[in-house]
Amino acid sequence: MTVQLRTYDSEQAQKILEDLVRVYLEIHATPPTPFQNEDRYRRQLAGHLTNPGWKLVTATENGELIGYAYGFPLPPHTRWWEGLQTPVPDGFTAEDGRRTFAISEIMVRLPWRRQGVARMLHEALVSDVEGRRMTLLVEPDNLPARTAYTRWGYREVADLRPGWENAPTFTALVLPR
């Protein structure tokens, strides 16, 4: 397997938005949920793309998009931590635009899973991040992802239910630098 990684900023990513949506829908096709739908994902992407420092890393093999990861530094007035269901230490949610890099998506198409592609995407995404920590959300029943994130050094910090319509409760994880 020869995987090529490419990094995009928000302007460059506009050219491949349809590919990103297509991969998202393929990955979340079974079982379908009211939360994981095309309209909501397009709105999520549109909102996230406006964040300063937004970054995307794609993985391709023979020109075919096999996965991607994207994230951005959390701004001072972020909504990322809204919906916390578990108490966190004082100051935990205080952001300044540099403290925390939020990874919104890491996804790899089924035929390429368990081959290190997600780890490659993650490492490329955060390789030049200046923040003191990274954060991501994972569905509690996604045991393969939770296991991988724990192996990568993430620790579970709280349950969080975002304000998106039909959003599930996620487990918030943090990786200190």
From TrEMBL:
Pfam families listed in its UniProt record: Acetyltransf_1
Gene3D superfamilies: 3.40.630.30
Domain N-acetyltransferase: 3-177
Domain of life: Bacteria
Residue ranges of the TM segments: none
Protein's name in the database: GNAT family N-acetyltransferase
Organism: Micromonospora cathayae
